[in-house]
Amino acid sequence: MRSKQNEMTKTKETFQYAFIQTLPVLFGYVFMGIAFGILLQKAGYHFIWAFFISLIIYAGSMQFVLIGLLGGGMGFLSLIILTLSVQSRHIFYGLSFIEKFKAMGKWGWYMIFSLTDETYSLLCGMNIPKELNEKQVFFTVAALDQSYWVIGCTLGGIIGSFIGFDTTGIDFAMTALFVVIFIEQWYSYKSHLPALVGIVCGVVALLIFGAGAFILPALMGSVGLLLIFKNNIKIGEEQEACQ
């Protein structure tokens, strides 16, 4: 009986911790999800479509692209290539979590599916208390983030069937969300080298490749440089921790 109570207490603590960590994503995802649901409804699709698309596809920016593709007659191969080009950055996101996701067993498959930009940022930036199980925290964070998105998309589909308004500029919510997460991680980590590497690679790639094609080169450059300076980052963090 006592062990069951302890397990329930741990589950509650895990949920509370994960919920607090995902609050920035909650506001960003619900707002952007509503935008997607409204646009999908305006394209002539019932809110049930918004629910199942966000539940099964769960691809963020690709879902917005999907609105324009529905009924557009694009070939299956072309659709695959487009999806890979839009979502290819996720290949790099998963590199640092391969071993951890493998250790999660069946949960690992869901973690791979649910690894969005914002969830990745949270998993990288969390300092999980020792008394909590890391695997359970990871899974709870990922599940909460997707639930926010599903709720937002579904609400948007429902709202869009009753209310019409101009959605210009609504996509800025995701930019604001990234800024909030970046600032939080900047203050949470003692070493700012990874963040600086990302900024430099992003700016250089933007100048060279332009706004439409800079993400993938920036990620490749960031991953390469971080692998090179991996030991330096670890040594710097260990030295600061001892001071």
From TrEMBL:
A single GO BP annotation from the record? L-valine transmembrane transport
Which compartments does it reside in? Cell membrane
Major subcellular location class = membrane
Name of protein = Branched-chain amino acid permease AzlC
- GO cellular component term, pick one: plasma membrane
Q: Show the stretches that span the lipid bilayer.
A: 20-40, 47-70, 76-95, 107-128, 148-165, 195-228
User: Which keywords does this Swiss-Prot/TrEMBL entry list?
Assistant: Cell membrane, Membrane, Transmembrane, Transmembrane helix, Transport
Which family is this protein grouped under? Belongs to the AzlC family.
| Keyword Transport among record annotations | yes
Bilayer topology annotation:
Multi-pass membrane protein
